[in-house]
C-alpha cells in the first residue's frame, strides 16, 4: 500500500500542480530511477561531480523554467518563481541525494540578488545563462567572517570609468567551480559604512577569477575562490549601499526555505530503506519489528517525518501569500530552517538505532543520509542564529494577535513576485500574527493537542509572570532554551492548520502531539537546569512537565501505517 503522505517514486504524480510542472518533476524522478541505485551510490562514494545531472537539467530546461521570474522569461508561459513547485523539486532532489539538491540550492541563492536588482542587463544575462543550462553561485561568506555580512574583505576600488576593480576572497561558495554567474558581496574602498556595500555579478570563467580549491570532501563542490583585480563594469553592479545589505538578507530569506524540503526528501528515502530492512530481518527468532522498542522508534520517526511535511507545506502558503502588509513568513521561514531540519536529524537517529550497522554500509542510501542530514541545520545560519531570530517574534505572536484574512492552500500556477521586493530587512518586532489559539481550539478534542495546549498556555503564563530580566535577556544560552519552547507552539500551530486543510487522520495527529508534549517536557527540563533560571522559573518548568495521553490502540493503528511501508519502494538497482 502506498502511503499518500510520503513521496514514492513508483507512484509519484504531483496532481496538485499544473501539467508543465508535473511533467518536469516526473521527468526528474524518472531520470534518477532509470539511472539506478548503483550509479547513485557509486558516484557519491567516488565523490564524482554531478555533471550528468546538470546535463539532464539543462536539456529539460529544469532550472530555467523553475527559477526564471515570469517578467524575465521572454514570454514563456511556464517560467515563473513558484514556491510550491520549487519545494516539490527540492524534496525530490533531497530524496536522491544532498549534492543534487545543493547545486540547485546555491543556484537559487545566486539568483536572489539578480532578481531583486533593477539592472536589466544583468537580469537578461542571468535568464540567458539559465536557458543555456548554467548554474549560479552566491559569493557572500568569507573564511575570517563566515556569513557576517557586516564584515567583508572583498574590496572594490573605483577604476575612474564608472566601474571598479575587485580584489578579495570568498569561502564556502557552492558551484563556485562552474557558475556562469556569481553574485558577489563586497565593499567600496572609498566609502565607509553601509553606504559602501556593493553586490555585483562575476563569472567563474574570467581570468581574474581564481578557483582555489574545494573546501569539503564530498561530491558537491564548495569552493574557495579569489578575485584578483577583477574588472567590475557598471553593468555588473546589482546593488549598492544599504540595498546590497538588504539583498543579502532577503536572498537568504528566499533560499533557506529549501533546507526543510531537502531534509524531508532525505528522511523519506531513508525511512523506506530502514523499515524494509527491519521488517524483513529476524533476530532471536523474532521479526525485528516485533520488538516493542523498535516499533516505538519507527513510529516516532514516521510521526516526526509527517509533522515535518505538514509544517513545511503550510509554510509554503504563507510564503506565497506574503506582501508588504503580511510578513508572517519571516517567522515561519527560520522555523523551517531551524526546526524542520533538526527534526530530520532526529528521524535519522531513530531509524539508525533500529538498523544499526546496516546504516554504515556503503551500498545503502542510508549511509549517505546519515552523513548529509547533519549539514542542513548548519547551512544558511546555524540553529542558534535562526532560533535567536525566532525569538524576535515571540511577544507579538503569543500576546498581540490581530485579524488576518485566512490564507488558503496555494498550489496555483502563479508568480511569487513579492519575494524579490521584500524591502528593507528590518521591523521584525512589528510583525503581527493571527491568533494561534484558534487552530488549537479547533482540535481540542484530540487528547494530546489538548495536553500540549496546557503547556503552551503555561508558557504564556511564565512570560507574563516571570519574564526574563535584563541579565537573562543578555544570556543567549538561557534565551535559546526558552526559544525552543516557543518554537514548539509555532510548530504545532501550522501542523494543526495543515491537518485541517488536508483532513489528516486523527490518530496520526494525536501521535504527532504525543511527541510534542514529550518535547516540550524535555525543553522545560532543560530550562530548569540552566544556571540563569530563577527559582520561580525553575518551579514553573517542573510544573509543566507532562506525560502524553497514552492510547495503545491508537499507537497500534499508526504502527500499521509504518509497517505497511515495508517493500513499497526500493530504488532500481
Mean pLDDT: 96
Sheet of most strands = 8 strands, mixed
What Rg do the Cα atoms give? Answer: 24 Å
Number of strands: 10
Poorly predicted parts: none
Q: Terminal Cα separation, in Å?
A: 21 Å
Amount of helix? 40-55%
Given helix and strand content, the structural type is alpha+beta
Sheet-strand content, in percent, reads: 5-15%
Number of helices: 21
Shape descriptor: globular
GO molecular function, one term: acyl-CoA dehydrogenase activity
Domain Acyl-CoA dehydrogenase/oxidase C-terminal: 245-393
Keywords: FAD, Flavoprotein
InterPro entries: Acyl-CoA_Oxase/DH_mid-dom_sf, AcylCo_DH-like_C, AcylCo_DH/oxidase_C, AcylCoA_DH/oxidase_NM_dom_sf
Please explain how this structure is put together.
This is Alkylation response protein AidB-like acyl-CoA dehydrogenase. Helix 16 runs parallel beside helix 19 (506-529). This protein has helices at 19-35, 37-45, 51-60, 62-67, 83-96, 98-115, 120-131, 242-255, 258-279, 292-320, 329-355, 366-372, 383-391, 394-399, 437-442, 447-465, 470-473, 476-502, 506-529, 535-543, 552-563, and strands spanning 136-139, 155-158, 164-174, 181-188, 197-202, 209-214, 222-232, 237-240, 282-283, 286-287. The strands form two sheets. Strands 1, 2, 3, 4, 5, 6, 7 and 8 form an eight-stranded mixed beta sheet that branches. Strands 9-10 form a two-stranded antiparallel sheet. Among the domains are: 19-134, Butyryl-Coa Dehydrogenase, subunit A, domain 1; 138-240, Butyryl-CoA Dehydrogenase, subunit A, domain 2 (Beta Barrel), CATH 2.40.110; 435-551, no CATH class. The relative contact order is 0.10. With 573 residues, it is an alpha+beta fold. The two termini are 21 Å apart. The model has no long low-confidence stretch (mean pLDDT 96).
